[in-house]
């Protein structure tokens, strides 16, 4: 099975709120001292793909990213985790293209790669969180999409996969023909592994393909034809916490129980 | 005639989410002078049909064997046809699994643009603008959708229902759209929540986080929740560790809850978690770290080791009943 895993480089979402600043004019977050990292749901997707390849004992994983030249880092990391191939579609012109532009570019890359059975993407990114890439890639390619999946396995008949995915109420198991798009969510079985030091060293010697937008006949000027950011700001918060005081733990628990009891009785 | 279309799931009934979607749709249609259409997918009970009629100018109930249970491909195909019949300027869905899954694809098929997790929508200069949290809740963005229709999934339970007083009942049309066959089949559907109580609708929630250190303390939290008549939830860290089921997860990529009281225990309160609980009326935290970010969102809180608090607190609340 040939799996394409789409990876997005984002500003580290673990940056504490007090250090987070936006450039309102550019309508982007300021990087400040923060790192750029691979979006966690993309890492969950890659981990899932690695487990599927391990379980099958065969298969091919192609890591793809669309982004500035620096996004090479997320692909080197994917190679260190033993992805078989890596492709960076360099888009230096626009740091925050709209979801349709990214999806169209990824779809074009998948076509150029050829023979891909399953395209895996994270359910959403930790920066803009649009949550649209998977669905739009599927539409660009005219194939199905199943979202919020934990993973998949070969289906009962050849050319199908069985996808387990989370829903609001629980989960569903869905059988679908390949090729298809699967968006991956986090769960306890797809926490990303840590690459071995030796593999990290070797990842820098592995080939990494770089394509331009024009290699894929993608028009760079269309990167906001779908949507754009009109405003970006940090919301003001006015909540002030009343800390429960007391000389002993018992006294504090009494006071807490009273506050909670008052709310419960008022309902 | 341009219209705003609200998409509702027949199976879900007239829940708080459906009311929020209808409320957002009604106010948007009124602001642009358009009609509001409610499109219900799958068999709907009388409460949903009459609730939709009270708010929308027209209600379309789409039924058929392929639409009684959600299927990503057949539901999408049917909705595409139903929306094309309405020539909408905007299509609104809830932020349930299915609404989120289908919205961007529906936009693509209709030649429009999508955005999600909207806390507000408004029309400006002939385009729809969507207000939503970004960067894990640390910032708010207004996204302008360049193409029509704008397909938007809204944070339905956080949005005010419509004021339906004084409106005539909208007309009801029943249709059976053609749904093409699909190779995508739902083999199994498991619903974990007991007694049909949904976390999203819970009035009181007791939630545990990474600081609990393992699955065992959730048993103690469950006793407290039982006394409080509360439902249980958890942070992403606790779910990812496998301590509790994924369906308990609250936050940016989990449930968006809006209880009267959210009691967070040993949860630090990363902004991504706050995104899921910000609509709570009262947030209370128990955490031994006074600098835990969750306290910035609390009405009241207790800085203490949860292990010293949960047992006695459960006792006190039981005795006070």
Topology summary:
The complex is a heterodimer of chains A (267) and B (321).
Chain A: E1 2-6, E2 9-11, E3 22-23, E4 28-29, E5 36-38, H1 40-56, E6 60-67, H2 72-80, E7 85-90, H3 99-113, E8 118-122, H4 133-141, E9 145-154, E10 160-166, E11 170-177, E12 180-184, H5 197-203, E13 209-212, E14 227-233, E15 242-243, H6 249-266
Parallel strand pairs in A: 1-6, 1-8, 6-7, 7-13, 8-12, 9-12
Antiparallel strand pairs in A: 2-5, 3-4, 9-10, 10-11
Helix pairs in contact in A: 2-5, 3-4
Chain B: E1 3-9, H1 16-32, E2 35-41, H2 46-55, E3 58-62, H3 72-84, E4 88-94, H4 97-110, E5 113-118, E6 120-124, E7 127-134, E8 139-145, E9 150-154, E10 171-175, E11 185-191, E12 204-208, H5 217-228, E13 231-234, H6 236-240, E14 261-265, H7 271-277, E15 282-287, E16 300-303, H8 306-319
Parallel strand pairs in B: 1-2, 1-4, 2-3, 3-10, 4-9, 5-9, 12-13, 12-14, 14-15, 15-16
Antiparallel strand pairs in B: 6-7, 7-8
Helix pairs in contact in B: 3-4, 5-8
Give an overview in words.
The complex is a heterodimer of chains A (267) and B (321). Chain A is built from six helices and 15 strands. Chain A has 267 residues and is α/β, with parallel strands linked by helices. Chain A has one domain (2-222): Rossmann fold (3-Layer(aba) Sandwich). In chain A, the strands form three sheets. In chain A, strands 11-10-9-12-8-1-6-7-13 form a nine-stranded mixed sheet, sandwiched between helices. Chain A has a two-stranded antiparallel ribbon with strand order 2-5. In chain A, strands 3-4 form a two-stranded antiparallel ribbon. In chain A, helix 3 (99-113) crosses helix 4 (133-141). Chain A starts with a strand and ends with a helix. The mean pLDDT of chain A is 95. Chain B is of the alpha/beta class and 321 residues long. Chain B has two domains: 3-175, 3-Layer(aba) Sandwich (Rossmann fold), CATH 3.40.50.620; 194-319, 3-Layer(aba) Sandwich (Rossmann fold), CATH 3.40.50.1220. Chain B has eight helices and 16 strands. In chain B, strands 5-9-4-1-2-3-10 form a seven-stranded parallel sheet, sandwiched between helices. In chain B, strand 1 (3-9), helix 1 and strand 2 form a beta-alpha-beta unit. In chain B, helix 3 (72-84) crosses helix 4 (97-110) and helix 5 (217-228) runs parallel beside helix 8. Chain B is elongated and about 65 Å long. The chains are: A alpha/beta (267), B alpha/beta (321). The interface between A and B is large, with 84 and 91 residues. Strand 11 (170-177) of chain A pairs antiparallel with strand 11 of chain B, so a sheet runs across the interface.
């Amino acid at each position: 099975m040939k799996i394409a895993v789409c990876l997005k480089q984002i500003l580290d979402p673990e940056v504490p709120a007090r250090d987070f600043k936006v450039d309102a004019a550019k309508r982007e977050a300021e990087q400040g001292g923060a790192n750029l990292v691979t979006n966690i749901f993309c890492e969950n997707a890659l981990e899932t793909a690695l487990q599927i390849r391990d379980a099958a004992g065969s298969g091919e994983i192609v890591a793809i990213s669309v982004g500035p030249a620096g996004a090479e880092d997320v692909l080197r990391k994917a190679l260190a985790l033993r992805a078989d191939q890596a492709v960076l579609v360099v888009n230096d012109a626009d740091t925050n293209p709209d979801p349709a532009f990214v999806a169209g570019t990824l779809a074009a890359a998948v076509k150029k790669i050829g023979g891909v059975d399953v395209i895996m993407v994270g359910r959403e990114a930790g920066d803009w969180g649009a949550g649209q890439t998977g669905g739009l890639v599927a539409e660009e390619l005219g194939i199905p999409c199943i979202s919020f999946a934990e993973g998949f396995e070969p289906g009962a008949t050849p050319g199908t996969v069985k996808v387990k995915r989370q829903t609001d109420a629980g989960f569903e198991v869905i059988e679908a023909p390949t090729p298809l798009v699967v968006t991956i969510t986090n769960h306890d079985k797809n926490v990303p592994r840590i690459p071995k030091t030796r593999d990290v060293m070797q990842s820098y010697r592995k080939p990494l393909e770089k394509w331009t937008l024009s290699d894929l006949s993608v028009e760079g000027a269309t990167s906001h034809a779908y949507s754009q950011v009109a405003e970006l700001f940090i919301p003001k918060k006015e909540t002030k916490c009343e800390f429960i005081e007391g000389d002993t733990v018992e006294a504090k628990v009494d006071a807490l129980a009273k506050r909670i009891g008052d709310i419960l009785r008022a309902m | 005639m341009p219209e705003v279309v609200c998409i509702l799931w027949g199976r879900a009934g007239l829940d708080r989410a459906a009311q929020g979607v209808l409320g957002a749709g009604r106010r948007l249609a009124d602001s642009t002078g358009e009609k509001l259409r409610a499109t219900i997918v799958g068999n709907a009970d009388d409460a949903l049909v009459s609730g939709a009629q009270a708010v929308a100018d027209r209600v379309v109930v789409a039924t058929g064997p392929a639409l009684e249970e959600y299927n990503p491909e057949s539901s999408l195909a049917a909705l595409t046809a139903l929306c094309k019949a309405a020539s909408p300027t905007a299509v609104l869905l809830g932020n349930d699994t299915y609404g989120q899954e289908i919205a961007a694809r529906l936009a693509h098929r209709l030649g429009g643009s999508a955005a999600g997790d909207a806390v507000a929508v408004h029309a400006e200069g002939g385009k729809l603008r969507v207000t939503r949290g970004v960067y894990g809740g640390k910032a708010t963005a207004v996204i302008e959708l360049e193409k029509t229709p704008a397909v938007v999934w809204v944070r339905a339970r956080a949005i005010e229902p419509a004021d339906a007083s004084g409106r005539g009942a909208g007309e009801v049309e029943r249709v059976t759209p053609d749904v093409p066959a699909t190779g995508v089949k739902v083999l199994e559907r498991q619903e974990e929540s007991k007694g049909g109580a949904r976390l999203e609708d819970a009035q009181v929630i007791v939630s545990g986080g990474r600081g609990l250190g393992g699955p065992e303390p959730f048993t103690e939290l469950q006793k407290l929740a039982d006394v409080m008549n509360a439902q249980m939830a958890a942070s992403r860290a606790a779910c990812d560790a496998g301590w509790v089921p994924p369906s308990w997860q609250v936050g940016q990529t989990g449930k968006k809850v809006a209880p009267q009281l959210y009691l967070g225990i040993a949860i630090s309160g990363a902004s991504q978690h706050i995104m899921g609980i910000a609509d709570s009326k009262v947030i209370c935290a128990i955490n031994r770290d006074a600098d835990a970010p969750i306290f910035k969102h609390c009405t009241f809180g207790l800085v203490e080791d949860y292990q010293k608090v949960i047992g006695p607190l459960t006792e006190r609340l039981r005795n006070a009943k």
